[in-house]
């Protein structure tokens, strides 16, 4: 099987080289009942006008269809049924354009010239109607940010939870229709941590965004391990000079501060980018309460933990894009990550035998870690011919080193005879990993850009060495001696060979995407202490089918059906059979028998007038793996296990209502029903959450955001949710100063402490487990961002030759 997939990997490269000659764009004929009208919007100086609003009114049916001129060149293109139309064009600062046209075939109109208005407008209020700002493809929806006055006044981080199906929890984790999100920015995947990414999104104001694409069914070009994607497209820099922002965020829980500077410098054909978080400090205190017991109540443990974490980190990213000419472009980047983390955990554990206290344990863990890492990226794009074909090559290489030093102090008191045993030990760890990735993609646009064909190959290699030295303190000699039972060296290597092909097009009102992805994974892990080698091979054929039928002429309503297959690999460290020490009654144990988890995602959605969004998801998992805590011979064993089959059913509803010109209500509801059955666990769980967000736009650029989350708790599918209603409320006030260059926001979240009511419980085999977390509330945060720019406009000819598009890579 390995030879077959490697052979397919090589054959796919040959297919990419031949694809341009094998596919004839002219073979994809447009529907005879649909015509295409194109033109360009210019001013009186022959400079193109972006974002002009063009409306076509059919004189016979009175139906309306709209389009917006491109940001790049002022061009617009629209599909119409033949007939007589009134064309109305409007854009801020120009006189309105109205004219009658007869369209009976594909038509390219002469350039349309708009006259500048002489009078200046002090204030213009544009109604933000999201229904006019959404475009649909077979796999996604794209929201135009620039046509919404509210979105232009708030940050990208504040815009996201107002979009259909997007939710952000108290910790800043983003989900789309209940699934974790992979973030792209101008088509580039973001490698930074979730904290840094959220800080970057907070620094980007809406008036600097072009659009946000919500990809609910990623096409075959995306990894089989990716379920949902959000692509944030920034406005292009059209002037030579500097554009940037300086931002900071301060939280009280317990305290954190995160400054960030982001700069783009454009000169001719070069664009230099810098994102730097030179210093990030965070302190957080968390309390955990845990109970583990056998079902016959013969043995149980009550744990109370106090966890104090401190972090000092920095992150820097540098890049340069260079447009060689209109056909060739290159991109080079480097990211640097450095951090120091300290954590202290104090345990108090009471052990009971048949409800009688038998012993108490007091444990202190003091851990210090340091990491250094870097990643190099290279991208090349070649635009082939005039039909929109292109070839993309990208490669990356990264190294990371992690050093950890853990000190354990343990005091065990036997209640029966009042004796005490002291244990001191330390655990040193050094981990190094190297990652290499390279891909080649071919894209061909179909006639009139009504679709595209994509294919590509990719190779990934991950190598990790993990050396662990465990030492126990000898009270007789007052020295630390190596304990071979908890000392281990572990090596892991993972290679992934990938090929894919994807076809996107439309027929009449039907938009569709068909794709196939093949991923062949080979893993090898070796434990020096146990002298064991484990090899695994996974070969997956991953189809993607997405159909979207537009139910009205305006293409604002549709019914969508999609299927996608994917997989998850076990965390590499969990494949190590070695045991690690937590305290006297708790250990962590690896499981080399873990196998991959396959999932099938079925999605049915209905959109009404781009205002009401209904979605049903049915997800089916085989060999689901998850961490568990099980009692074995008076010891708690923390380990990953394959738990069997899981069915997860989700229903969601989203809408945005403009109640008044100053009041907007957003609702994003999610209902989950999970069924997990195996020999060790059997449960059915229902959870729901309904976030509501009220946004009030007040005079003088004040914006109040009031969000309330109603839910019955959280569940991973293994544990049961709370039996009570949770109501979590947050409020924020935003204000812009100095000609909108300075943006400030103060917010208070979890006002009533609902997060502290989190509970988790499950039963596996003969062990029941429950836990609760206590964190500081309410959480107060303040952030400020100052945007700056300098430079002058380039002339028209230079603008055409020097424009750099970050999404090219």
Automatic annotation (TrEMBL):
Primary residence: membrane
Keywords associated with the record: Cell outer membrane, Membrane
SUPFAM superfamilies: Carboxypeptidase regulatory domain-like, Porins
All residue ranges annotated as the Outer membrane protein beta-barrel domain in the record: 385-782
Compartments reported by the entry: Cell outer membrane
InterPro entries, A to Z: Beta-barrel_TonB_sf, CarboxyPept-like_regulatory, OMP_b-brl_3
Gene3D superfamilies xref list: Carboxypeptidase-like, regulatory domain, TonB-dependent receptor, beta-barrel domain
Official protein name in the record: Outer membrane beta-barrel family protein
């Amino acid at each position: 099987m390995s030879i077959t997939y490697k052979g397919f990997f090589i054959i796919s490269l040959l297919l990419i080289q031949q694809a341009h000659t094998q596919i004839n764009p002219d073979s994809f004929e447009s529907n005879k009942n649909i015509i295409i009208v194109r033109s360009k919007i210019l001013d009186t100086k022959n400079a193109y006008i972006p974002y002009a609003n063009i409306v076509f009114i059919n004189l016979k049916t009175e139906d309306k269809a709209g389009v917006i001129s491109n940001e790049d060149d002022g061009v617009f293109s629209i599909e119409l049924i033949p007939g007589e139309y009134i064309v109305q064009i409007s854009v801020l600062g120009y006189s309105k354009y109205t004219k009658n046209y007869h369209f009976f075939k594909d038509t390219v109109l002469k350039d349309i010239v708009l006259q500048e208005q002489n009078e200046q407008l002090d204030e213009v209020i544009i109604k933000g109607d999201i229904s006019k700002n959404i475009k649909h493809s077979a796999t996604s929806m794209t929201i135009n940010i620039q046509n919404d006055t509210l979105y232009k006044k708030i940050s990208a981080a504040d815009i996201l939870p107002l979009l259909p199906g997007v939710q952000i929890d108290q910790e800043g984790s983003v989900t789309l229709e209940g699934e974790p999100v992979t973030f792209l920015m101008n088509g580039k995947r973001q490698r930074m941590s979730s904290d840094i990414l959220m800080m970057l999104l907070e620094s980007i104001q809406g008036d600097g965004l072009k659009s946000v694409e919500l990809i609910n069914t990623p096409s075959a070009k995306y990894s089989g391990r990716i379920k949902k994607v959000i692509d944030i497209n920034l406005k292009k820099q059209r002037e030579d000079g500097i554009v940037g922002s300086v931002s900071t965020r301060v939280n009280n829980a317990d305290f954190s501060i995160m400054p960030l500077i982001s700069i783009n410098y454009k000169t001719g054909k070069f664009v230099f980018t810098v994102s730097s978080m030179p210093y990030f400090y965070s302190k957080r205190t968390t309390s955990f309460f845990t109970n583990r017991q056998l079902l016959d109540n013969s043995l149980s443990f009550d744990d109370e933990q106090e966890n104090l974490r401190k972090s000092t980190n920095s992150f820097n990213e540098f890049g340069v894009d260079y447009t060689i000419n209109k056909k060739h472009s290159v991109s080079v980047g480097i990211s640097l990550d450095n951090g120091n983390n300290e954590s202290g955990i104090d345990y108090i554990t009471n052990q009971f035998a048949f409800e009688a206290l038998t012993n108490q344990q007091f444990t202190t863990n003091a851990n210090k870690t340091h990491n250094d890492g870097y990643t190099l990226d290279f991208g090349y794009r070649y635009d082939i011919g005039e039909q929109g074909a292109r070839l993309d090559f990208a490669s990356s290489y990264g190294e990371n080193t992690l050093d950890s030093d853990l000190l354990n102090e343990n005091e065990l008191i036997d209640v029966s005879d009042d004796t005490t045993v002291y244990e001191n030990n330390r655990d040193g760890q050094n981990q190094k990993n190297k990652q290499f990735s390279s891909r080649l993609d071919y894209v061909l646009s179909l006639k009139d850009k009504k679709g595209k064909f994509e294919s590509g190959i990719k190779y990934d290699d991950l190598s990790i060495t993990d050396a662990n030295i465990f030492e126990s303190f000898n009270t007789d000699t007052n020295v630390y001696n190596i304990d071979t039972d908890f000392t281990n060296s572990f090596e892991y290597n993972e290679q992934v060979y990938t090929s894919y092909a994807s076809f996107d097009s439309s027929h009449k009102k039907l938009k569709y995407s068909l794709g196939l992805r093949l991923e062949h994974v080979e893993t090898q892990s070796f434990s020096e202490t146990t002298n064991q080698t484990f090899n695994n091979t996974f070969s997956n054929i991953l189809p993607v089918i997405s159909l979207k039928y537009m139910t009205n002429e305006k293409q604002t309503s549709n019914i969508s059906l999609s299927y996608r297959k994917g997989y998850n690999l076990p965390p590499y460290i969990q494949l190590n059979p070695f045991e690690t020490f937590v305290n006297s009654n708790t250990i962590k144990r690896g499981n080399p028998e873990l196998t991959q988890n396959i999932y099938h995602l079925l999605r049915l959605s209905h959109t009404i007038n781009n205002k009401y969004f209904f979605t049903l998801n049915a997800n089916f998992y085989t060999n689901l793996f998850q961490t568990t805590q099980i009692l074995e011979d008076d010891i708690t064993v923390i380990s990953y296990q394959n738990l069997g089959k899981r069915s997860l059913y989700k229903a969601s509803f989203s809408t945005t209502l403009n109640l008044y010109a100053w009041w907007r209500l957003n609702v994003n509801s999610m209902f989950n029903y999970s069924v997990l059955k195996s020999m060790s666990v059997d449960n059915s769980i229902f959870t729901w959450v309904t976030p509501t967000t009220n946004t009030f736009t007040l005079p003088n650029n004040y914006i109040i955001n009031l969000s309330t989350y109603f839910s019955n708790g959280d569940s991973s599918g293994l544990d049961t949710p709370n039996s009570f209603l949770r109501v979590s409320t947050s409020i924020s006030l935003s204000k812009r100063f100095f000609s909108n260059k300075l943006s400030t926001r103060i917010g208070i979240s979890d006002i009533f402490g609902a997060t502290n009511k989190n509970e988790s419980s499950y039963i596996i085999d003969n062990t029941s487990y429950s836990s609760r977390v206590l964190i500081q509330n309410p959480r107060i945060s303040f952030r400020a961002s100052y945007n700056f720019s300098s430079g002058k406009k380039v002339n028209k000819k230079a603008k055409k030759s020097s424009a750099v598009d970050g999404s090219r890579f």
